[in-house]
Amino acid sequence: MLRRGLLALLLVLPGCADDSPRPTVFAASSLTEAFRALDVDADFSFGSSSRLARQVAEGAPADVLATADEASMRSAGRGRPVPFATNRLVVAHRGAVREPADLPRLRVVLAAPSVPAGRYAAQALAAAGVVVQPLSLEPDVRAVAAKVRSGEADAGVVYATDAEGLQTVELGVEARYVVAALTDRGRPFVALLLGARGRRVLTEHGFGLP
What is the chain's Cα-based Rg? Predict the structure, then answer.
């Protein structure tokens, strides 16, 4: 009985459940494959940058935040962001697009304007002088690519790294990714990401370097 009582006490003592060196990493969904390829012992949560930043601002226990734009990072209100990667915006399609001007006559999906991919898409389409009525507005860029792959849409605006298996048309807009360590436990992960190994993995997965 005494041993059970001691065990129960240890489980509820402050800090005892937080001794693991494994960081919790919140990251933009487009970073999923690259971050997993780092092969580090971490708990990952992938999703839209704006949603993850909002969760951090509301107190979610994240040690690292990596977003696809600086605006999302600023909204989190924590950490000192450092640029670590770039990405290209493209129209992903299955043979239906020769140039952005083709989009208005097609079934097009976009990321919602509340997420970085949606904001980048609006910027790119405005620069190209193209107006589309999207079939749907998706919660993140990977959902856009999935709808094009499934045939539910003819085309979508995504990051180049999410267009695997699809044809692409360049849009001339660059996304800039930033990362911040939110706790001391997150610092080793950020150091790895910014170091030679992290840079190699990012370029192997199609990202540019700032």
Answer: 20
C-alpha 75/C-alpha 94 separation (Å) is 36
Q: Give the residue carrying structure tokens 């208005």.
A: 104
Closest CA to 174 of 190, 154, 153, 160: 160
Spatial contact of 85 and 196, defined as CB atoms under 8 Å apart: no
- Chain centroid to CA 51: 10
User: Which DSSP string do the residues of 2-66 spell out, in sequence order?
Assistant: HHHHHHHHHHHSTTGGG---PPEEEEEGGGHHHHHHT--S-EEEEE-HHHHHHHHHTT---SEEE
- Coil, strand, or helix at residue 90? strand
The pTM score is 0.87
Q: Give the containing element (helix H, strand E) for 207.
A: none
For 144-193, write each residue's pLDDT tens digit.
999 999 999 999 999 999 999 999 999 999 999 999 999 999 999 999 99
What is the rounded (10 degree) CA torsion for 85, 121, 51, 143?
Answer: -100
Nearest to 178 by CA among 92, 89, 110, 76: 76
